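User: Predict the complex.
Assistant: Input components as received:
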Amino acid sequence: MINAYDILETIRMIQDDCLDIRTITMGISLLDCIDSDIDKACEKVYNKITTKAAHLVEVGEQIEKELGIPIINKRISVTPIAIISAACKCSPVKFAHAMDRAAKDVGVNLIGGYTALVQKGFSAGDTELINSIPEALASTERVCSSVNIGSTKTGINLDACKLMGRIIRECAEKTVDSACFGAAKLVVFCNAVDDNPFMAGAFHGVGEPDCMINVGVSGPGVVRSALTKYPDADITKISDVIKEISYKITRVGQLVGTIASQRLGVPFGIVDLSLAPTPAVGDSVAHILEEIGLEKCGTHGTTATLALLNDAVKKGGVMACSRIGGLSGAFIPVSEDAGMIDAAKSGALCIEKLEAMTAVCSVGLDMIVVPGDTPADTLSAIIADEAAIGMVNCKTTAVRIIPAIGKDVGDELDWGGLFGCGPVMPLKKESPSKFINRGGQIPAPLHSLKN
Amino acid sequence: MRAVVTVIGKDAVGILAKVSTKCAEYNANVVEVTQSVLQELFAMIMLVDISKLNSDFSTLSDDLTALGEKMGVKIHTMHEDIFNCMHHI
């Protein structure tokens, strides 16, 4: 029989420490839906999504019940729509509506893939798609969008950085009534990955199979709780404890993915080893860093503790699952993590520190609220800075930043639910306009030449 | 296929009887039972065979949870796979 202590440990992890599976995401290729008639293409998109994902939510709920572990989100990612819409030669907003309808009908809360990949320049369909993002996000409920503007291999498309600054502002302006929520559904990437299960940046890359299941685990509460048992241990021991717990968390992700893939008849792709937080008490990544020994997340030492955490999570998880992918790093959206919200409100956590943190963890400046009067060029420069970190360090970085239209430092935006709330964080006032308006391509770094 | 039924809470007369009666109603065969006071809690752990259930697993699980609420204890019914995967290489 299974050891009684082990059983109780598992139950405690789920009951008291918020262990859950953050998401089961079904990636669906839409390449076979391309049609020069946009209405026909949209119909094919709708039909393909609703056929492939017909039982996604039902199977997710079944597994939840059987294993006794919550699966918070069931989601869908699709092929970057710019590739599908290129043949239509018109505004691709109809695709967003078709995706939204499909998502509603199969019961998933978010669908990702309203995406363009422009790291080296714009091809047919890309500019139309990017320009339509504000309208697409304002007129749909569940669609998420992303744009890849740089990579280690290609360098950074500065024209795209410039464009995205304006698009982010427009997304926020068009959704002022819903706390600028449009901008929270848009991610700008450098080194975007094809199999990311986490929203809002998920899309189904063109090299992926027709349909597959990817799983994102969670469990910052479990890690923090395990660390409380070692108040005086040295940092090597801390790393070992995180590895052990990360192994256990990831095993559950592997199990859930395997069962889901069998029942849905779809191959199992990857487990994303990210410690995704939620705004719930006891589910915060920042609190892990504080447990390791920081008075407040954001103070000096934050980058080092985060590097240790991120590394240990990967080392523990790597043996627990057959394939790893996605972002796989500490996942810390400011508004979605109770400890990060506190730290930002108290002033301990500033945007420069967040930037430094992204140099050692996976996701970039995520869910950060900035003053409503921030110029588009400043947003573009923030994107360029973040992309440079990703490009030079050969890693994914992202910017999901929300200009709080009509608000300033001291105010906050509150979306409720999993998206949480975020205080407006101050930015520098000096203008980077001349740099941004130069346009062109920042060349790839020397160390990208590995062949 | 086996499930682990865990009862955690304050000890009382008849817990084992009530839980096993409920399992019998669903044709779930009790394979093994351990009972102890662990970390200041009364814990009874039952391993039950669920391969010949006369209903679906989620109904059994809901029914046991409800029974637990009535008795003032927490009852979790989980497939054994989650424990095996977490605690064995």
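Chain B has a mean pLDDT of 90.
Let me know if you want any component modeled separately.
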